[in-house]
Amino acid sequence: MRILVVDDDKSIVKILKGYLEQANYDVLTAYDGGSALQVLRQEQPDLLLLDLMLPDRDGWDVTREIRANPALATIPIIMLTARAEDADKIIGLELGADDYMTKPFNAREVVARVRALQRRVGFEKKPVTDILTIDQLKLDIAQHQFSLAGNIVELTPTEFNLLETLMRNPGYTYSREELLQKALGYGYEGLGRTLDTHIRNLRRKIEPQTSEPTYIQTVYGIGYRFKRN
User: Fold this and answer.
1) Which has the closest alpha carbon to 182: 133, 225, 126?
2) Of 79, 120, 141, 200, whose CB is crowded by the most CB atoms within 10 A?
């Protein structure tokens, strides 16, 4: 997932970029509205962190143009601003912002808001594909079939759902709670060990070496992610 961070304060951009990259996001940057729109048209990122008070075109103007452009209209937007008045928040949301954060903010909370918005709008903006392929792994969704180097490998329904969720978003770090809810459809309470067991069983079937996983990677203290293609 690629995120465009737009703020005329380069120190804020640097901090947010660091925290987002640490959370395994790809980060693009811009320091004014005109440059932001140029990057948006060229790169079409998956999410926009947008400061309101920019030196040329303010965040409201940028938001209007994004929402009026069919090629950009579905990009989720989180507005960042030093203006705390409720009226400003309402205007931003009515123009099409998906969330709103007031400065000063905690960079960790920004990452949490990004993840929450990501969950709400869905993990991919591209149409869902029926066949997922990474290296020698091939997951056929329609046939509910998995093969490794051309050989069919039998997966339980739970293992299949977990693998599909992970393969659809390579490089994205899922918390245990996210993975349970997204792949299995239930909450986290008391089920962390159950998830770890499913992951361990899945690794035995797909990994060249279970002691040093290539595909399903553990992110300690958070959860799991699938290797980038």
Assistant:
1) 225
2) 79
At residue 89, the pLDDT reads 67
Is-contact 75 40, C-beta < 8 A? Answer: yes
Nearest to 190 by CA among 199, 177, 209: 177
pLDDT at 188: 46
Residue with tokens 């990259």: 21
User: What does the alpha-carbon distance between residue 97 and residue 104 come to, in Å, rounded to a whole number?
Assistant: 19
Structural Rg of the chain based on CA atoms: 20
Structure tokens at 40: 């948006």
**pLDDT digits over 8-61, tens only?**
999 999 999 999 999 989 999 999 999 999 999 888 899 999 998 888 888 888
Query: pLDDT, tens digit, for every residue of 183-193?
Result: 766 554 445 56
Q: Is the pLDDT of residue 124 over 50?
A: no
User: Would the pTM count as exceeding 0.85?
Assistant: no
